[in-house]
Amino acid sequence: MTTLTVVRPGPMTTVQDWPGRAGYWSIGVPPSGPMDDLSFRLANLAVGNDGGAPGFECTLGGLAVTVDEPTTVAVTGAPVTVTVDGTPVPTWAPVELLPGQQLAVGATGSLGMRVYLAVRGGVTVPDYLGSASTFTLGKFGGHDGRILTDGDELPLGTTSTATAPRRILDDEVPAFTTQWQLAVTVGPHSAPEYFTEADIATLYDTAYEVHFNSDRTGVRLIGPKPEWARPDGGEAGLHPSNIHDNAYSVGALDFTGDTPILLGPDGPSLGGFVCPVTVTSADRWKLGQLRPGDAVRFVPVRAAEAASPGVVGTARRANLPVVLSAGGDPDDGILARSMTADGETTITYRRSGDDNILVEYGAMTLDLESRARVYALEQRLRAESPHGLIELTAGVRSLQVKFDPTALSQPAALDWIREAESQLPAADDMIVPSRTVSLPLSWDDPSTREAIERYVLGVRGDAPWCPWNIEFIRRMNGLGSVEDVQRIVFDASYLVLGLGDVYLGAPVAVPLDPRHRLVTTKYNPARTWTPENAVGIGGAYLCIYGMEGPGGYQFVGRTTQVWNHRHPHAAGGFEPEHPWLLRHFDRISWYPVSTEELADLRADTAAGRGTVDITPGSFSLSSHRAFLAREADDIARVQSAMEIARDEERGRWAAAGEFTRSAA
Q1: Which pLDDT value is given to residue 161?
Q2: 561: buried, middle or exposed (CB in 10 Å: 19+, 13-18, 0-12)?
Q3: Which residues have C-beta within 8 Å of that of residue 54, sequence separation ≥ 6?
Q4: Over the chain, what is the mean pLDDT?
Q5: Which stretches within 441-583 are classed as H helix?
Q6: Cβ 55 vs Cβ 123: under 8 Å
Q7: N or C: which end of the chain has fewer CB within 10 A?
Q8: Are 154 and 123 in contact, with CB atoms under 8 Å apart?
Q9: What's the CA gap between 265 and 497, in Å, rounded?
Q10: Cβ contact 272:237 at 8 Å
Q11: Does residue 394 sit in helix, strand or coil?
């Protein structure tokens, strides 16, 4: 077997395959894969591989390798100088590399961000959840779940299924520039519901600048602040960008507060922010080549006229530096509206790119009946699974249906979903499995205090939620003391409505008793660092962070792991079939532990010795309705007091200029 040795890894080189890790978006595992899928697939084509064969993504170039057997290689992507033992060789073409010769990839210049190296036969690394792609934040996939380092040795695959290598034709090579145009479809959340018509006009008229703080999770942009069509997000948060958590599409333009971010292949699957437009699947390769300082313009196109993502030739239209379009769809991203069979609940079918439909139930409020209908629709669609369906991802009141647009058109997908929905039973009849999961909580854990301090020093020191998130939660909900916040959190039973809100099985959960629903807003801008398994509240929801990373929920403490990093090896409390701990409709309850006790519990879990107290049960929507009816007067009293407090806080924000802060 041929072995490739890394002589120099460059700033960030990883193993990726295409289309990446599909089928796990619903529990917070992103697809990963090449950020520029087009250049990656063309590199494989050049050496005679299948387009999805594992290869290398080199951010900013700089990779140097050797092989111990004669091997065909190809370099594509951002323009770079490539040499073999110091002699220049062409890019976008197969090159023969002999044993002992060193292939060296130069640094990227002013055009493009990522370079791709394919080797004939592909790279051989273990699959993780069905893919070879590296997800560095999750520390899995690729070569030991990490970027490559000096001296790494990777075995190469066989060429039994390979075709003849060939040069990539000039009209197949994508166009690189510093003035990018991205084809976008309108939706899922546009004007006039969430943005003003003027906001959308500004969006299309503006040349946004790529921010230096961009990576594979998302490309942050600098541009004008929206006017917004709403004063706030209601139960979802005080900022008008806040919504009840729903699934995202890769390529969505996500407004996290007033900051627009193009979500990348390592981005989050769920979130509570609006996305007015989505980059078409065929144009998403450009996200991988956006450099800090580049200009980005959004060009609306009709979804039915978007280029096909299944091709790599001229039909992809990638060789053109401009997007040719006569305009976008005139429907504001809404494909259809209807009612449930009982006539009680509205259904909105939203476009989320050319490869997703977001099905929303009811008004923009927290309603467990809507979540029950989402569950029923998900089960129905999953059972039918027509050709072209890729995955289903549930949010709080929505279900995202992802499909391959080359196999299932958006109109056909819409017809199928609407037909399935019309046959669902009444929500009142729904009973779902619901375990009670008891977890430890280190209240106001020092790691969360450290994260707040980093935010104050490095991001924003004047935020209303600083210097102590728990005091902010108290103030937002009109409570007498921070001890009242603590009492409510420990008294509550949190129903898991979604997984993967912040990656890796991280739950978004809501108290079953509305009197326990402490409502806050999220950080704006978001934190750059959050400790693994921090526990926070955003809107009316509680979340456990599955791993380190950015975040916006207001901290209350820290708990044990909700993702088994030892998988496929066993860990206490985790099922052997998969690495996530929690399920949809689990009920989380907390018991208090000290910081030292939590450290011991976390160490036990990491070593595979931990245990979790899990009790089987079920959740009945009709029983929950009966509880709400019995307690209606007191629930109204408590929620009214909390709403008055939030109105007062909103007034303080307005007086302090919080709603007029610059988007930059």
Answers
A1: 64
A2: buried
A3: 15, 16, 17, 122, 123, 124, 125, 132, 133, 157
A4: 94
A5: 446-458, 469-476, 482-491
A6: yes
A7: N
A8: yes
A9: 23
A10: yes
A11: strand
**Of 466, 567, 562, whose CA–CA distance to 509 is shortest?**
562
Distance CA 62, CA 9 (A): 7
pLDDT at 442: 98
- Give how far the C-alpha of residue 570 lies from the chain's centroid of Cα atoms, to the nearest Å: 27
Do the Cβ atoms of 41 and 286 come closer than 8 Å? no
Q: Is 604 exposed, middle or buried (0-12, 13-18, 19+ CB in 10 A)?
A: middle
CA distance 226 to 430: 41
Q: Look up residue 474 and give its two tokens.
A: 């108290």
- CB-side neighbour CA atoms (13 Å) of 137: 25
Contact 413, 357 (CB under 8 A): yes
**Cβ(407)–Cβ(589) below 8 Å:** no
What does the alpha-carbon distance between residue 481 and residue 473 come to, in Å, rounded to a whole number? 10
pLDDT for residue 661 = 57
Least confident of 63-67, 166-170, 363-367: 363-367
Strand pairing of 436-443 and 587-592?
parallel
- Check: CB of residue 412 under 8 Å from CB of residue 420: no
What is the maximum alpha-carbon separation in the chain?
A: 81
Kindly state the tokens that stand for 524: 């704006």
pLDDT at 663 over 50: no
